[in-house]
């Protein structure tokens, strides 16, 4: 399967599960993002790989570091676990757990 075929399949799946196109950053019924495609770097008007916002999303990075800590971000040339360590003080998850403790 090519990158574009996978992207189109994800959008098709979102539509079949009832996603309604609304304002950007608004609530969604489902949101399937394509984060990486092996070590590919690609961008067009539909998709950018690696996902350009991934380093700002701890809710993605933290679980990803648990299952693929040694995966190297193809643009940053850093392991996912290292990106997590560098950004951990900025993460919402860390801020929430600090408040709970």
Task: Describe the model.
This protein has a domain at 53-101. The termini are far apart. With 101 residues, the chain is mainly α. It has helices spanning 3-16, 58-68, 80-87, 92-100, and strands spanning 42-43, 48-49, 72-73, 78-79.
| Oligomer status | single chain
Distance between the termini: 45 Å
Radius of gyration: 15 Å
Report the structural category: mainly alpha
Name the strands of the widest sheet in spatial order.
1-2
Q: Largest sheet, described in full? A: 2 strands, antiparallel
Number of helices, where a helix is a run of at least 4 consecutive DSSP H or I residues? 4
Mean pLDDT: 86
Runs in which pLDDT lies below 50 for 5 or more consecutive residues are: none
Order of helices and strands: HEEHEEHH
Shape label:
globular
Strand content: 5-15%
Q: How many strand elements?
A: 4
Fraction of residues in H or I helices: 40-55%
How would you summarize what this structure contains?
With 101 residues, the protein is mainly alpha-helical. The chain is 42% helix and 8% strand. The protein has a domain at 53-101.
SSE arrangement:
Layout: H1 3-16, E1 42-43, E2 48-49, H2 58-68, E3 72-73, E4 78-79, H3 80-87, H4 92-100
Antiparallel strand pairs: 1-2, 3-4
Helix pairs in contact: 2-3
Features:
single chain; 101 residues; mainly alpha; 4 strands; 42% helix; 8% strand
């Amino acid at each position: 399967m090519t990158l574009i075929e996978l992207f189109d399949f994800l959008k098709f799946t979102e539509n079949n599960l009832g996603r309604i196109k609304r304002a950007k950053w608004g609530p969604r019924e489902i949101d399937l993002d394509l984060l990486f495609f092996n070590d590919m770097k690609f961008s067009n008007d539909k998709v950018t790989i690696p996902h350009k916002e991934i380093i700002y999303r701890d809710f993605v990075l933290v679980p990803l570091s648990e299952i693929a800590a040694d995966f190297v971000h193809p643009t940053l040339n850093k392991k996912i676990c290292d990106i997590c360590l560098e950004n951990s003080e900025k993460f919402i998850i860390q801020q929430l757990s600090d408040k709970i403790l």
